[in-house]
Amino acid sequence: LRYIYENNDEFAPLPSMPFALTFKGGNSADVLPFPPQHFMGAIGQIPPQGPVLDGERSPTLLKQLPTSTKNWAMRSRVTAVSQKRSGAVVESETIIVDKDTGEECARLGNSVFYVGVKGLQSAGEPSKVVIEIPQRPPDREVSETITLERVQTYRLSGDYNPLHVDDDVAKAFGFPRAIVHGLCTLGHSVRHVIKEFANGDPGEVR
Fold this sequence. Notes:
Pfam families: MaoC_dehydratas (PF01575), MFE-2_hydrat-2_N (PF22622)
Distance between the termini: 22 Å
Domain MaoC-like: 133-200
Strand order of the largest sheet: 1-4-3-2-5
Domain Peroxisomal multifunctional enzyme type 2-like N-terminal: 1-116
InterPro entries: HotDog_dom_sf (IPR029069), MaoC-like_dom (IPR002539), MFE-2_N (IPR054357)
GO molecular function: (3S)-3-hydroxyacyl-CoA dehydrogenase (NAD+) activity; 17-beta-hydroxysteroid dehydrogenase (NAD+) activity; enoyl-CoA hydratase activity
Oligomer: single chain
């Protein structure tokens, strides 16, 4: 209950929560297309030629996230477009700002992969961060099954890509059924990391 119930004595936001906030943008109650328009900036919506998939995510938490406030702003901009042989990658950055103090609270790097899209002109400076996987046994191993109900509930956070809820859409793109949101999987993974390596304290994650 710590991450979902505001009256819990240890109520705290999961460190990966800011990624979900970016889907809704402002105070929209509508079902928004994926990716949302504010991710795309001046590029506008790109007509999909295949599935539109989450790419990489790179969060930097600059201060501990509060549990409530009314004066936040999110500022997004496109940082790079890369035309690949199998599609196009659009990278963006979202900064979450405390409007009362002007402090930046989080910087979120996002990338979206448009499978099959051709003809875009590459621009900007694509991210070149490469994380090397250690060549040794893992420090911990945790196994968890993400149920269909959890996937459908996660959609209510604002990640409305139909690939994750509509079997017909998923099959049209070559998948046997709707697939789990990458960010839903990330949220579960972050929770396990906090439990195993941060003594259960989400404030330790940066």
